[in-house]
Write a structure and sequence with these properties.
Number of helices of chain A: 4
Shape of chain A: rod-shaped
Largest interface: A-B, 27 and 40 residues
Largest sheet of chain A: none
Number of helices of chain B: 10
Oligomer: heterodimer
Radius of gyration of chain A: 41 Å
Number of strands of chain A: 0
Structural class of chain B: mainly alpha
Helix content of chain B: over 70%
Strand content of chain B: under 5%
Chain lengths: 107, 194
């Protein structure tokens, strides 16, 4: 945009026709960079069956791992369970001995 | 005119995001000269200006999602900002070499040639503009030589409209002073020559 005042006395820049052609030519076969979400979307579009199978395997694996981990006892739980067993054994033994003495007394 | 030519820049960018190189080509053809002019005015060097515009467009093609239309900026505003920043960065990195200044030096040897006298006038103005503070130069380039509206120029530069107006008026005042000094010097030289 040339001005009428002294600011207009400035040389016009050269033409850039070849530059546009060069940019278009050099980018023609240049791949675009995509984020991992876009790459995942592309993958889902291109191979939906494989992606669905992989997701299914992932879910199954997660379920197996989670169920195993809920069955496996934590150390504190193990300790408290062991304590309870000892106490129950003691009570059983005490009751049996009490019963033995009682029977002996009755006899 | 193809349907692509009728599309807005923002529509074309949406197509570029889906890998449409034809949409990208239309954008490049539509805007290369405009952005090249700005880079050339900032750098004063054709080769550097070409490199800046090519790099900027290549980045747009490689990663079009960098442009976020939801933020409300027009494609040209966003891209002007990229070109302005890249040009200023390069200018700071390189010691500026101005083609027009070189013409002025050559002109000293061929004063009779009218074309050279005109080139010298261009060069004087160019030299005066290049001596302005960076932000004043950018404001001048955008508003006077690119024909960008003040509101858009302010957005590109990340300042308010009032601040832009102030930059422009200071730039014009200092250029006017320098330019009239140059003219006075020229008159004195020509009187002395008679």
């Amino acid at each position: 945009m040339q001005q009428d005042n002294f600011l207009g006395n400035r040389q016009e820049p050269p033409m850039a026709d070849k530059l546009a052609a060069r940019i278009i030519y050099e980018t023609a076969h240049m791949p675009q960079q995509k984020s991992w979400i876009e790459q995942l979307k592309d993958l889902i579009t291109m191979r939906p069956a494989q992606v669905a199978f992989a997701m299914l395997c992932l879910v199954a694996l997660s379920v197996i791992i989670l169920s195993n981990s809920s069955e496996t006892s934590a150390p504190m739980q193990v300790a408290s369970m062991q304590n309870e067993d000892v106490y129950e054994d003691f009570v059983t033994l005490y009751e049996q001995e009490t019963l033995t003495f009682l029977v002996a007394d009755l006899n | 005119m193809t349907s692509y030519d009728e599309k807005t820049d923002e529509d074309l960018m949406a197509l570029v995001c889906s890998g449409d190189h034809r949409a990208f080509s239309v954008l490049v053809k539509r805007h290369t000269q405009k952005f090249f002019n700005l880079a050339y005015r900032t750098l004063g060097n054709e080769k550097d200006a070409e490199d800046i515009v090519q790099d900027s467009f290549t980045k747009v093609w490689r990663k079009p999602t960098l442009y976020k239309p939801e933020r409300g900026a027009k494609f040209t505003t966003w891209f002007y900002r990229i070109v302005v920043n890249a040009s200023i960065d390069l200018k700071r990195k390189n010691k500026p070499v101005y083609g027009l200044e070189e013409q002025m030096v050559d002109g000293d040897y061929i004063r009779q040639d009218e074309k050279m006298v005109v080139a010298e006038e261009y060069a004087q103005l160019e030299s005066a503009i290049q001596q302005l503070p960076e932000r004043q130069q950018t404001a001048l380039n955008l508003c006077y030589y690119q024909g960008v509206a003040q509101k858009e120029a302010a957005d590109i530069m990340g300042v308010g409209v009032k601040a832009l107006e102030s930059l422009l008026s200071r730039a014009k005042a200092s250029l006017k002073e320098q330019y009239s000094n140059m003219k006075d010097e020229e008159k004195q030289v020509s009187y002395a020559a008679r």
